[in-house]
Amino acid sequence: MSKKRFGSIEAGGTKFVCAIGDETFMILESSIFPTEEPKKTMEKVKKFFLEHPVDALSIGTFGPVDINEVSPTYGQVLASPKKAWQGFNFIESVKTWFKKPIFLTTDVNASAYGEYSIGGAKNVDSCVYVTIGTGIGAGVIQTNQFVGGTTHLEIGHGFVCRHEKDFEFAGVCPYHGGNCFEGVAAGPSIEKRTGISGEHLPQDHQVWEIEAYYLAQLAYDLRINFAPAKIIFGGGVINEHLIEKVRTQFEVINAGYVNVPDLAEFITVSTFEDNASATVGNFALAQKVLHESDIR
Length: 296
Prior knowledge:
Nucleotidyltransferase, domain 5
């Protein structure tokens, strides 16, 4: 019996990561290239997978995107800030050259599934993965299923209570300004306040206290709404020093109201290097959709 190969397309706002993996979800080959206009970008995706054939493929994409399989616009990018991609349909595009099983979800859902499959949440039945980077998003998993109704969650655009030292900041969200988590806590908000990207700021900079306050609010909202066994933070802004501040602020906000495990175990950072959780999650989802197609 031949060994299966699984494909991952991680479609990010600034770059695409294409990869193939084996049945242990080890990355065998990968290619990274900038996110350009759809036709040019998808030609590179097609070339990679024609050179590296796989048995099933999973796409984890930036949003908003229609992930409802019974929707007439399933696979279509919706009101994305990336204007050139609005209305583009990932499913239709890939099916023109790939005739095997395909799964589609958001990039953050794929990351959550990677953590759930073999990452930091592999030993629990529920988790939330939160990415803090150019934007903010979260994927929620309960007993091997994504939480969501007609579409994916938009937790990054939830309403935020402003930090007392941050009222003058206008925010960076084109829709909500400084009234949502993405507007005040995504990577661009740090650079807009300080003129320096977060990765180059010293750990004692005041902005990290503000950032931790917002991420602790987000973690608290996730706890009271979804009651996960674990919350995992990833993305370019996240590091252990910041997450320790988040745990401290979470304890203050919670004020002893809801029961949580040891915060060092409950609120954690991703166990994957180079933010590879989405790639691994896509491998696992491709394996899942292949198995489901085999038993139909």
